[in-house]
Protein backbone atom coordinates (compact mmCIF):
# COMPACT_ATOMS: atom_id res chain seq x y z
CA UNK A 1 0.00 0.00 0.00
CA UNK A 2 1.10 3.57 -0.66
CA UNK A 3 0.32 6.15 2.01
CA UNK A 4 0.39 9.70 0.69
CA UNK A 5 -0.66 11.93 3.52
CA UNK A 6 0.94 15.32 3.08
CA UNK A 7 2.56 15.46 6.50
CA UNK A 8 4.91 12.61 5.75
CA UNK A 9 5.81 13.56 2.22
CA UNK A 10 6.72 10.11 0.92
CA UNK A 11 4.79 10.56 -2.30
CA UNK A 12 5.61 12.48 -5.41
CA UNK A 13 3.09 15.34 -5.56
CA UNK A 14 3.30 17.94 -8.33
CA UNK A 15 1.46 21.23 -8.80
CA UNK A 16 0.21 21.62 -12.36
CA UNK A 17 2.01 24.55 -13.98
CA UNK A 18 -0.76 25.15 -16.55
CA UNK A 19 -3.63 25.69 -14.13
CA UNK A 20 -4.89 28.90 -12.50
CA UNK A 21 -3.75 28.49 -8.89
CA UNK A 22 -1.85 26.13 -6.58
CA UNK A 23 -3.08 23.97 -3.76
CA UNK A 24 -1.48 25.02 -0.46
CA UNK A 25 -0.71 23.27 2.81
CA UNK A 26 -3.17 24.05 5.61
CA UNK A 27 -2.73 23.15 9.27
CA UNK A 28 -5.09 20.66 10.82
CA UNK A 29 -7.26 21.90 13.71
CA UNK A 30 -5.77 19.44 16.16
CA UNK A 31 -2.23 20.31 15.10
CA UNK A 32 -1.34 16.82 13.82
CA UNK A 33 0.19 17.63 10.48
CA UNK A 34 -1.42 19.33 7.54
CA UNK A 35 -3.57 18.75 4.46
CA UNK A 36 -3.71 20.39 1.04
CA UNK A 37 -6.38 23.03 0.50
CA UNK A 38 -7.76 25.63 -1.84
CA UNK A 39 -9.49 28.50 0.00
CA UNK A 40 -12.74 29.68 -1.57
CA UNK A 41 -11.52 33.22 -2.18
CA UNK A 42 -8.56 32.20 -4.39
CA UNK A 43 -8.92 32.97 -8.10
CA UNK A 44 -12.06 33.66 -10.12
CA UNK A 45 -15.15 31.56 -10.76
CA UNK A 46 -14.34 28.51 -12.92
CA UNK A 47 -10.58 28.79 -12.29
CA UNK A 48 -8.88 25.40 -11.83
CA UNK A 49 -6.13 24.17 -9.55
CA UNK A 50 -4.62 20.72 -10.13
CA UNK A 51 -2.50 18.62 -7.81
CA UNK A 52 -1.05 15.49 -9.35
CA UNK A 53 0.17 12.37 -7.56
CA UNK A 54 2.74 10.52 -9.64
CA UNK A 55 2.40 6.75 -9.31
CA UNK A 56 5.19 4.33 -10.09
CA UNK A 57 5.41 0.56 -10.02
CA UNK A 58 1.72 -0.24 -10.41
CA UNK A 59 1.37 -3.72 -11.86
CA UNK A 60 -0.47 -4.16 -15.17
CA UNK A 61 -3.70 -6.20 -15.19
CA UNK A 62 -4.36 -5.70 -11.49
CA UNK A 63 -6.76 -3.63 -9.44
CA UNK A 64 -6.14 -0.98 -6.84
CA UNK A 65 -8.25 1.14 -4.55
CA UNK A 66 -7.58 4.84 -4.03
CA UNK A 67 -8.97 6.06 -0.70
CA UNK A 68 -8.78 9.69 0.35
CA UNK A 69 -10.25 12.21 2.77
CA UNK A 70 -11.87 15.30 1.34
CA UNK A 71 -13.83 18.29 2.52
CA UNK A 72 -15.94 20.84 0.68
CA UNK A 73 -16.68 23.51 3.26
CA UNK A 74 -18.67 26.66 2.58
CA UNK A 75 -21.50 27.91 0.39
CA UNK A 76 -20.96 27.37 -3.35
CA UNK A 77 -17.29 26.61 -2.76
CA UNK A 78 -16.83 24.83 -6.09
CA UNK A 79 -16.07 21.30 -7.29
CA UNK A 80 -13.53 18.63 -6.52
CA UNK A 81 -12.76 16.10 -9.26
CA UNK A 82 -10.37 13.20 -9.58
CA UNK A 83 -8.84 12.14 -12.90
CA UNK A 84 -6.73 9.10 -13.74
CA UNK A 85 -3.97 9.44 -16.33
CA UNK A 86 -4.30 7.23 -19.44
CA UNK A 87 -8.08 7.30 -19.11
CA UNK A 88 -10.58 9.35 -21.05
CA UNK A 89 -10.57 13.00 -19.99
CA UNK A 90 -13.73 12.63 -17.91
CA UNK A 91 -13.31 12.62 -14.12
CA UNK A 92 -13.62 9.24 -12.39
CA UNK A 93 -15.01 10.99 -9.30
CA UNK A 94 -16.66 14.37 -8.69
CA UNK A 95 -18.22 16.18 -5.75
CA UNK A 96 -19.69 19.65 -5.92
CA UNK A 97 -20.88 20.49 -2.47
CA UNK A 98 -20.56 19.42 1.09
CA UNK A 99 -23.59 18.93 3.30
CA UNK A 100 -21.50 20.32 6.16
CA UNK A 101 -17.90 21.12 7.09
CA UNK A 102 -17.00 17.51 7.90
CA UNK A 103 -14.28 15.43 6.30
CA UNK A 104 -15.58 12.53 4.21
CA UNK A 105 -13.98 9.53 2.56
CA UNK A 106 -13.79 9.06 -1.19
CA UNK A 107 -12.99 5.72 -2.84
CA UNK A 108 -12.08 4.99 -6.44
CA UNK A 109 -11.44 1.59 -8.02
CA UNK A 110 -8.49 1.65 -10.41
CA UNK A 111 -8.38 -1.27 -12.83
CA UNK A 112 -5.10 -1.61 -14.68
CA UNK A 113 -5.07 -2.86 -18.23
CA UNK A 114 -1.89 -3.48 -20.19
CA UNK A 115 -1.12 0.24 -19.70
CA UNK A 116 -0.84 1.27 -16.09
CA UNK A 117 -2.14 4.48 -14.59
CA UNK A 118 0.85 6.67 -13.84
CA UNK A 119 -0.84 9.53 -12.04
CA UNK A 120 -3.95 10.64 -10.18
CA UNK A 121 -4.97 14.31 -10.40
CA UNK A 122 -7.10 16.14 -7.83
CA UNK A 123 -8.70 19.14 -9.52
CA UNK A 124 -10.42 21.96 -7.69
CA UNK A 125 -12.76 24.25 -9.59
CA UNK A 126 -13.50 27.61 -8.00
CA UNK A 127 -17.16 28.29 -7.25
CA UNK A 128 -19.05 31.51 -6.52
CA UNK A 129 -18.58 31.40 -2.76
CA UNK A 130 -16.21 33.64 -0.84
CA UNK A 131 -15.80 31.53 2.29
CA UNK A 132 -14.77 27.96 3.01
CA UNK A 133 -12.29 25.72 1.26
CA UNK A 134 -11.76 22.49 -0.62
CA UNK A 135 -9.37 20.14 1.14
CA UNK A 136 -7.76 16.76 0.44
CA UNK A 137 -5.72 14.54 2.77
CA UNK A 138 -4.70 10.98 3.63
CA UNK A 139 -4.48 9.66 0.10
CA UNK A 140 -3.91 5.91 0.28
CA UNK A 141 -3.52 3.42 -2.54
CA UNK A 142 -4.01 -0.26 -1.72
CA UNK A 143 -3.89 -3.23 -4.01
CA UNK A 144 -7.12 -5.13 -4.58
CA UNK A 145 -10.73 -3.98 -4.63
CA UNK A 146 -12.02 -1.20 -2.38
CA UNK A 147 -13.24 -2.47 0.99
CA UNK A 148 -16.92 -2.06 1.82
CA UNK A 149 -17.62 0.54 4.52
What this model shows, in words?
Residues 2-148 form the MAM domain. The chain is mainly beta and 149 residues long. The protein has one domain (2-143): Sandwich (Jelly Rolls). Helices cover 0% and strands 48% of the residues. The protein contains no helices and eleven strands. The strands form two sheets. Strands 1, 3, 4, 6, 9 and 11 form a six-stranded antiparallel sheet that branches. A five-stranded antiparallel sheet has the order 2-5-10-7-8, with no helix packed on it. The radius of gyration is 15 Å and the shape is globular. The two termini are 18 Å apart. The mean pLDDT is 87.
Draw up the topology in text.
Elements: E1 2-4, E2 12-15, E3 24-27, E4 34-39, E5 48-54, E6 63-73, E7 78-84, E8 93-95, E9 104-111, E10 119-126, E11 133-143
Antiparallel strand pairs: 1-11, 2-5, 3-4, 4-11, 5-10, 6-9, 6-11, 7-8, 7-10
Which terms summarize this structure?
single chain, 149 residues, mainly beta, Jelly Rolls, 6-stranded antiparallel β-sheet, 5-stranded antiparallel β-sheet, 0% helix
Summed up:
The chain is built from no helices and 11 strands. It has strands spanning 2-4, 12-15, 24-27, 34-39, 48-54, 63-73, 78-84, 93-95, 104-111, 119-126, 133-143.
